[in-house]
């Protein structure tokens, strides 16, 4: 092996890492007697700085610019540009990091080329979008948030990191912390929902799960806070669209998860595609430097989104790619994803004095620091271990954790006449019907990294068969189509191109499918539907103007309804859908999101009552698309509508619709259980709270049902009068607690003035004295309200 890196280090370097790898598995120790462990020197900043100073001094300008470039392999492309020469560029030192190119077979040789062929042998970072699992796929991110269980989020990320690093990936582009209010936007499936408090906690838990407490450990990976910032409010739910967000809104609703991730030590940030108040986020010095670095003290590096630098041109913010590179880099975007504008123009920009070499050195330093922290200078091959890939991926334990996460994430939206759990004493046969009842392809949702879609995922049909054996007959029929675009086409997915051979062969085929389903249903005691959206209908570049269930699913359900049998819908989808028809016509609805590799087992657990549903909605479900944006923490308006007023004439000139209630179909925080939770009277320790005091809020909750189960007890507040108008409700705390049958527990929350702090009229942060309401309950629309006063 040509040990370029090693010779670089041994020749003039003052500081050398303790151990250098020569090849996968074999470790050299260039400094006899000094065999420091990674843990010892990972935090040794002085040693790291000396090493990087030395390395920087040896680098040419071209080599430095190379470190600023990130290129994509061909595995999960999300833009029109791919540069197929990327492997040679790695060998030439023109590219410092790679994504969409993983597995031992693909990534190890590339690292070898970087280390052995490039002049300085600087290792590359290998990245991939590890969003909700690597090969063991956990529930779609939004679904995982519906668990309201930080441990579910942390463990999901931890398992993902363990598996991804075993496949040679050391950097993930997650968590996505874009706050969302528009279910038309396909990317809500990747988001942490509409509530900033819940999203902040979940995002931090994910960072902790990915990164652990030691980035150099071979089973942890660098995380990315994305997309900074505002992307979640893309206008009209159309992907990549503009955003216009007031300062109050930006700082109260969009910034907090990002700031919290900086505080939690997130390794990197990704810019967002949108323009924000007229400035594209990828070229915003205010966001990337003034806020992120100067105000928040972020110490990692910033990567742009895919070709986002070049996109400053169509945004109308840069004249050409060279100008775009100048703007983005000077704004604070250290690394350019795919677009090559740094690669092509940075040298000229330096020579022309439009970019300073000091600034280049600074960005390169941040990237090299990350390489150091990942342990790559100690051993560039530390993440390539074939045995680990075989040992750590898709293990029984991981599959079981994914099953548990899916159970905890599913939300029981409706359950009339205790239609669920299925009564196995009286049911002899089930009709299992619908396009998602047995679709492996869809179970793992979008952005499913290296998840296998063909054999591994367990469908609802398989899960029920495994659980019920011969005790209950299952009559299956697909029954409907669920396509929304063209009926037959080649479609690009995040794991490549797949050829879609659909069932749509015109009307006769629909009729035949429905007939088969009706025949199956006639034989059964109960109908269980697997309905929803194809997985590709949410995720990136997957916006919809209609959010009802697509294809011929409605027609199917209308026909089945005529049989008069109990109908239970299990919905698989990455977004809040308009389920108004289903709400009126089905007896029970379980929202399973895309539940992941073990999803079918988890759903069977829930349907038969082995486990009680405990998920709560992280996003409001509208009655119709016309209500969007609809979210629970709205403002009151000057003319709030009162649906309870018996004299509705008085309510005419109020903030309302002529053709729909204002209220959603299912509110934020909604989710039923097989247990029956009774809330006692909410009690406050005092009617006043001082600025440095505490207020205790307590409530006794009793499970009066026949099943044990978990409940999410939610705490909200409202500031009645503020120096800026305040939301009608804001989540300030929750507790997820298990109750056995008949069990009572007193649940206690503590509120302080800091919990009531917000961005005041002058944008200062703090609480204001005055009247407040505190609300406690099982969902945002089912709370008890009490008043208290915050006093100076
Ligand atoms: C574009 C997406 O917006 C971003 O979230 C993702 O990480 C990159 N593509 C890389 O795949």
UniProtKB/TrEMBL annotation:
It is an enzyme of class 3 (hydrolase). It comes from the Bacteria. Its EC number is 3.2.1.21. One of its GO terms (biological process) is glucan catabolic process. It is found in: Periplasm. One of its GO terms (molecular function) is beta-glucosidase activity. This is Periplasmic beta-glucosidase. Residues 711-780 form the Fibronectin type III-like domain. Belongs to the glycosyl hydrolase 3 family. It catalyses: Hydrolysis of terminal, non-reducing beta-D-glucosyl residues with release of beta-D-glucose. GO terms for cellular component: periplasmic space. Its main location: periplasm. Residues 1-21 form the signal peptide. Keywords: Glycosidase, Hydrolase, Periplasm, Signal. InterPro entries: Cellulose_Degrad_GH3 (IPR051915), Fn3-like (IPR026891), GH (IPR017853), Glyco_hydro_3_AS (IPR019800), Glyco_hydro_3_C (IPR002772), Glyco_hydro_3_C_sf (IPR036881), Glyco_hydro_3_N (IPR001764), Glyco_hydro_3_N_sf (IPR036962).
